[in-house]
Amino acid sequence: MKCPFCNNNDTEVVETRDNEDMQIIRRRRECPKCAKRFTTYERIERVPLIVMKKDGRKEQFDRDKLKNGILKSCEKTVVGISEIDSIAEEVEKELRNQDGVEIDSKKIGQLVAQKLKKIDKIAYIRFASVFRRFVDVEDFEKELQKLL
């Protein structure tokens, strides 16, 4: 690793720390030439997930977009931001553990719906109404009957 202060090509690692989920390694380095210290981070380079949309388009998976969708469903409910983060993280992990990098958007919606159904029925119904494209009151009624 090149020293950012003197451009020396030889630096030494003096301390290494992993984060909680073992995804990022923090390294404290020291340059033997100028004796200055600096920090570097290593993370696994992941292959991007590709979402297959209902209309045939493809787009790169965006965790923030997923979180925003869940957040909208959870407005004015008891579901906290930490639970929303947890759902997004769990869904992404499940997607990455599947074979292949192309994921049907329907699969993502099903995973989120399952998780919301377990923690808050109102958030689940809100999410399902958009995800399943409810068009009339009967669609809501059918889904509510399943919950009851």
From TrEMBL:
Its cofactor is Zn(2+). A zinc finger (unnamed) spans 3-34. GO terms for molecular function: ATP binding; DNA binding; zinc ion binding. Pfam families: ATP-cone, Zn_ribbon_NrdR. It comes from the Bacteria. Binds 1 zinc ion. Belongs to the NrdR family. This is Transcriptional repressor NrdR.
